[in-house]
Amino acid sequence: MSSVTVIPLHDRERAAAERASIDGSCRGPVLYFTASALFWLLAGSILAIIASAKLHSPYFLTGIPELTFGRVRMAHLQAVSIGWTSMVTMGGSVWMMCRLCRTELIYPKLLYVSATLWNIGTLLSVGGILLGDGQSVEWLDAPPYAPPFFVAGLGIVSAWVAATFRRRREKHVYVTQWYILAALFWFPWLYTVAVFMIFWSPATGVVQPIVNWWFNHNFLGLWLTPVAVGTAYYLIPKIIGRPIHSYYLSITGFWALALFYSWAGMHHLIGGPIPAWLSTASTVGSMMMFIPVIAVGINHHMTMRNHFHRLKYSPALRFTVFGAITYTWVSFQGSIESLKDFSEVAHFTHYTVAHAHLGAYGFVTMIFFGLYYYMIPRLTGREWSSSTLIRIHFWCASVGITIYFVSLSIGGWWQGRMLNNPDVSFGNITRYLLPYLFSRTVAGILLTIGHIAFATSFVMNLAGWGKKRTGGPTFFVEKVA
Amino acid sequence: MDRGMVIFLGALLTFSSSWLGLILFPYWQLNNEKPYQKEPGDDPYPMPLQGEALAGRKIYQANGCIYCHSQQVRSEKFGNWWDENGQEHTGADIKRGWGSRRNVSRDYIYDNPTMLGTMRTGPDIANVGSRYSEAWQHSHTFNPRALNDWSIMPSFAFLYRKEKVVGERSEKALKLGREWTVDPGYRWRPSASEWDAILQQSGDAIKSRYLTEPTHTGGIDPNTPDGKKRLLDFWLTTEEEGIQIVPTGNANALVAYLLALRKAEVPVPEAKE
Fold it and tell me: Model ipTM?
């Protein structure tokens, strides 16, 4: 073991007081962001189950235009991408940035405005889609009256994070801060360009899907991924009490991601009516993604080495490490998927849907769950009241996403093989997929049970049911090694 | 990396590279494509959607059709499969009859939004306008399972109106048996006791109607269980008396849009392989 620097008691007390004061300044806005996000997660889960059930039981809820498959499918995506993941990304970024800059949040009230704008936008988006204003532009289905709310809300968060960074008392800039700064700079640019070129001043013909897929892929790659990876970089060393393995691997991982991820989106249009060089350029970008992914994977793994037994005790660590490991695998899979031979089968099938959920749920959402379990007690001053609820949440989430991924990957792969063979009738392909689609509904119900357990924990914590924080966090097993 | 400016400039440069390469360059290359005219005086291809078809695109958009139906026929060289003899083949899209050629960027210059789609839970419909009649499209939109029992497509019965026939049946009325029209969106079948009651009331009329069908298979005795079932199966395929299902304006618009989808028909030079 490396030598441990003993910090004098009064310094530790001072540091603890400083942390408490920073957490206090963030409490209101960050809890507002995270509570809203959780609400949208639940809404998105219900929409997901409806959409999923309709694909194997087409008579389920037939006849209600608001609940027709296409609308529910669009509303689900908006609820979980704009409502859930984006709101955690913003709330989590604000808190981690304040913590790492060792500075209090200034003018916290304006962040209430930001979260409110974002909630109004999401409500208009989800509600508008169900009522028939969906745009059928993948990931950007929000009706035209919603984007201004997102742009305004996002602008405030970006400005606040930048201002916090400017006021930093800690000279050293940690890797998490790079990721957060970059994400909050990229996403407004990305979003505005996409909305501008598709809706406000629409580009001609296939330029739209090109912009669309550049946006979609970067939504995960330059918005959710950096903040989720940054969160893992923050939480793992914090929980196990040990610094990150290698500073240089962090740098490699960051810059390689910045350069290559942004080029990766066009393989979603492979074989389509776009110039072939575009798909090829994206295949190169996707293959180069092995570099940052391996760098981050090694860095996280080496940091965790000899500390894996702590997964038994710490809920936050368990979720975070699940997400961090999934990041490596889902990224490897993504790189392989961009290859033409592979895409010829997997494209246009549920295989891609499985991959997208492994990324957005198995990786991003799981790390964000870890962030909640770590961050919320520090904001409310109360521990989680029930380790059983956390256990239910973890097992439902991990088993649910596994069933989801495995069933749709297998079903989707054979769907692709059969689609390529004109001797197989379309009816047979549809019939073949039914059991896999049914498994997805089972997975969705499991995930939702986990989310309900999670939301219950969260509400109990806010309501003051947990014991006051006196130092030790909630563990799965009370005896800590 | 303790300086904010390094992070800012790096983030700016890396992202600019993809913005220039993947957005601005294709924009410059593709944004001003013109319609194709073989000879001067020919109708240019493609033509912008107009009237009902244009309104129909909104219905297509609002109901998220893109999430199951792509609109892009791929090259004859794309996607391989092997037949029983182990022979390799490619180009299933065209062989499935989804289009007579691959799609090129020019096919989409009047699309807004351009709904290429990335999912084929349902078949590709870039060229669906040349594949089915208007009547087929209406029946299929009303309840896809009336035409394909395996279909998992949603019913869009909410785009249709069920009404009493006043005078003549409307020309546009759907030609579907009562099993599809009694409870729009669902498949209806009376319970055993309901069927007994119906037979009690109008059994003779149904039977004599059955016997006038050119396809009937001889005598039928509605008193035997088998005869009862056969008569029911027949009766369910007959139209409801005095009731018709007619498309609303939105259904007409949607079908007009589907009929206008003919993206892989007119030959253009760049689609040659």
Answer: 0.93
